[in-house]
Write a structure and sequence with these properties.
single chain; alpha+beta; 3-stranded antiparallel β-sheet
Length: 96
Amino acid sequence: MININQLNKEFESRVRLGIMSVLMVNDWVDFTEMKNLLEITDGNLASHSTALEKSKYIEIKKEFVGKKPKTSYRVTQNGRDAFASHLGALEKLLGR
């Protein structure tokens, strides 16, 4: 019997799945690169990344490069573990 409760509710959104997928294979990814990779709006990225940060799944770094603000993201170990567990539950659900 497969239990869908093993799926992590934080990753239900396609945007959050995208953010986590990008961060699982990259170290730091900046705001513009992430936005372009996922083809989403500034507000969409900001709201979903904030939610993932609150869950301690990603880290957000804000700094200035010259006089320009720069926001970057990376996955935390907690996020890496939670996402891997979520993917494992999806694979079980798919019978793989």
